[in-house]
């Protein structure tokens, strides 16, 4: 075999600078993991890249902190390691020190510029990590150095849209079974027991998340003692009571049933109550406890399920508490009127829900229509009619104003239909006609569909309906709206327009400024509708009246807005006069009016005393309802070209 001489001209390749750096970096990480400080120092003295990171972003410093090797940490910092270097998930050495609970390292990194509330890419702070891992001393140290106890986890926007994040250190401690940490957070640090994450879950729900939570009873007891909401919902709409039944934990069920505001008949998203689940799971003792607490037995085929499980004692128990042998009647065939909300309505109609008077409702995201400043708007059924239910706290001034205004305007077809209201457990439920979308949503969906040179019938119809609604609200009902905006103008399944949201309305006491505020908002709405929502309503509110008028696309719109902005003091009947404004005339009616007027003999002769001539030239003091406000020729030439051939034919 031929061998190569040491003196051969062909030498083995030497590693490049990049390869050498990578090899040294890997050796650096290995030295830390193996606890070999001599090798670590040797590599650093030999020029190894101190901030080298592996594919997950781990550096030698991150590893040294994880291993609680303070000597290695100090050595690495001495050789220039970045104390704020982040892993791929955004975790810094300071946050890792919180995980391992090393107070000395926490002190060190704070002195090196760490922010006590800095977080990784998932929103975890060192304080949260200390709560997750039960590191009491680290938790107290961080609290004393300014850590925010009730900080909720911030996530990336795409995650937030999925309702991820928002959890607090209290939830972390509850989930991981750290009763001692939980007690410190509540008793010494002022943790908010009512805090919710982005899915609406509180610490009670988090306590049930891990099946091996050995301190569950202590944690639930502590949270309830501090006032945690016992009716909160978790995954699949399950309440703490339902979760306790699923676990078969009689003591927890008993503890929860002792709470003053417990909703014993509440259901999950499948329409199952705690009692129905107890029967399905053959939990006779829990079922008996629930029945003794007067849980409804009208929540499913309880007797049939018990018979199917050959559980005669449970059948006897259920029958003794009023359960029906044949179960509830089958749901009749039914089709929703709403296309947008149809699936959710069908599901709500199918599942069991305890009635609130004449109202069937489920306060759950699946049935939420919109958020409000108080309790939100949800789908529901009122006396069997599909409705939108606006929720207020009992005694709410806004709720009282809404109901009072709606009750006084039942005959006004241009206002949203009011079916009735119910009160239950400190909440007022206002039941209204269910609509498909708001005006704002309509324009968002139809952006770019406008066709140039065509008559805008939609704008005319929308504004005519809104003007009629507000005019009747002022004249017949004696109220002013005070919150006119696109979100409060609704479109139903038949494309009819109605005005809604009267929780800021006020009874008119003769103050002109109250009506002028509505007229001002109508001026903004006119331009918003004519421009098909391309100018945001909130932006229009920031502009001067002159700017709004100047942005109008034609003379009719400009004049109508000008009339709304300059109403004078005689305001109560002002809108009634504007309903005849040329803006609301169709192109065909404009032409016919000019043609017919032009053919009047008095016009041809110029008879100044003629009634029609005087109508065309009203005195300044008159509130003209004629087309005298028509200050422009029939329209731009393109309009005339569209109208005249059509009409003359």
Automatic annotation (TrEMBL):
Gene Ontology MF: a single term: protein kinase activity
GO biological-process terms attached to the record: defense response to virus; negative regulation of viral genome replication; RNA processing
Skewed-composition ranges (Polar residues): 1-19
InterPro entries: Ankyrin_rpt, Ankyrin_rpt-contain_sf, KEN_sf, Kinase-like_dom_sf, Prot_kinase_dom, Tyr_kinase_AS
UniProt KW keywords: ANK repeat, Repeat
SMART domains for the chain: ANK, S_TKc
Renumbered residue ranges of the record's region Disordered: 1-23
Keyword Repeat: yes
SUPFAM superfamilies, sorted: Ankyrin repeat, Protein kinase-like (PK-like)
Domain Protein kinase: 363-584
Region forming the signal peptide: none
ANK repeats: 23-55, 56-88, 89-121, 122-154, 165-198, 199-235, 236-258
Superkingdom in the source lineage: Eukaryota
Protein name: Ribonuclease L
């Amino acid at each position: 075999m031929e061998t190569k001489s040491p003196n051969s001209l062909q030498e083995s390749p030497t590693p490049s600078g990049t390869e050498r750096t990578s090899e040294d970096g890997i050796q650096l990480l290995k030295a830390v993991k193996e606890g070999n400080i001599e090798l670590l120092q040797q590599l650093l003295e030999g020029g190894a890249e101190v901030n080298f990171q592996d594919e997950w972003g781990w550096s030698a410093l991150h590893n040294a902190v994880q291993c609680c090797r303070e000597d290695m940490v100090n050595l690495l910092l001495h050789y220039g390691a970045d104390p704020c270097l982040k892993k791929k998930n955004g975790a810094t050495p300071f946050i890792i020190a919180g995980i391992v609970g090393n107070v000395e390292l926490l002190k060190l990194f704070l002195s090196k510029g760490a922010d006590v509330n800095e977080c990784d890419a998932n929103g975890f702070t060192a304080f949260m990590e200390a709560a997750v891992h039960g590191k009491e001393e680290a938790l107290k140290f961080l609290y004393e150095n300014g850590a925010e106890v009730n900080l909720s986890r911030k996530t990336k926007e795409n995650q937030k849209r999925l309702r991820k994040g928002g959890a607090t250190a209290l939830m972390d401690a509850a989930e991981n079974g750290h009763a001692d940490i939980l007690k410190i957070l509540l008793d010494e640090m002022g943790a908010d027991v009512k805090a919710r994450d982005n899915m609406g879950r509180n610490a009670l729900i988090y306590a049930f998340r891990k099946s091996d939570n050995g301190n569950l009873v202590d944690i639930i007891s502590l949270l309830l003692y501090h006032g945690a909401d016992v009716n909160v919902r978790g995954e699949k709409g399950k309440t703490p009571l339902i979760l306790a039944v699923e676990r078969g934990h009689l003591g927890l069920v008993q503890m929860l049933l002792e709470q003053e505001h417990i909703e014993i008949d509440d259901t999950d998203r499948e329409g199952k109550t705690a009692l129905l689940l107890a029967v399905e799971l053959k939990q006779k003792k829990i079922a008996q406890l629930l029945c003794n607490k007067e849980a409804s037995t009208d929540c499913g085929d309880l007797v049939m399920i018990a018979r199917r499980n050959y559980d005669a004692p449970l059948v006897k128990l259920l029958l003794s508490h009023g359960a029906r042998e044949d179960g509830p009647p089958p749901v009749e065939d039914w089709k929703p009127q709403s296309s947008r909300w149809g699936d959710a309505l069908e599901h709500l109609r199918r599942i069991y829900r305890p009635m609130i008077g004449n109202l069937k409702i489920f306060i759950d995201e699946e049935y939420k229509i919109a958020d409000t400043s108080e309790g939100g708007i949800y789908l529901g059924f009122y006396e069997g009619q599909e409705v939108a239910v606006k929720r207020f706290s009992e005694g709410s001034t806004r709720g009282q104003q809404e109901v009072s205004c709606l009750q006084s305007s039942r005959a006004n077809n241009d206002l949203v239909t009011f079916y009735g209201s119910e009160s239950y457990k400190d909440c007022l439920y206002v039941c209204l006609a269910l609509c498909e979308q708001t005006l704002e949503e309509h324009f968002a969906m139809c952006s770019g569909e406008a066709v140039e040179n065509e008559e805008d019938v939609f704008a005319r119809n929308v504004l005519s309906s809104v003007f009629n609604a507000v005019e009747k609200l002022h004249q017949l009902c004696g109220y002013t709206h005070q919150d006119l905006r696109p979100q409060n103008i609704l479109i139903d399944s038949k494309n009819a327009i109605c005005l809604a949201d009267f929780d800021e309305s006020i009874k008119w006491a003769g103050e002109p400024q109250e009506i002028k505020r509505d007229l001002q908002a109508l001026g903004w709405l006119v331009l918003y509708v004519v421009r098909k929502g391309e100018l945001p309503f909130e932006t229009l509110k920031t502009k001067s009246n002159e700017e709004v008028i100047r942005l109008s696309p034609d003379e009719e719109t400009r004049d109508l807005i000008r009339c709304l902005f300059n109403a004078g003091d005689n305001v109560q009947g002002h809108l009634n006069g504007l309903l005849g404004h040329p803006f609301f005339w169709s192109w065909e009616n404009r032409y016919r009016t000019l043609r017919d007027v032009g053919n009047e003999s008095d016009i041809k002769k110029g008879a100044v005393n003629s009634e029609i001539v005087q109508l065309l030239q009203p005195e300044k003091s008159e509130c003209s309802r004629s087309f005298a406000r028509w200050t422009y020729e029939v329209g731009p030439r393109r309009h005339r070209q569209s109208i005249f051939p059509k009409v003359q034919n």
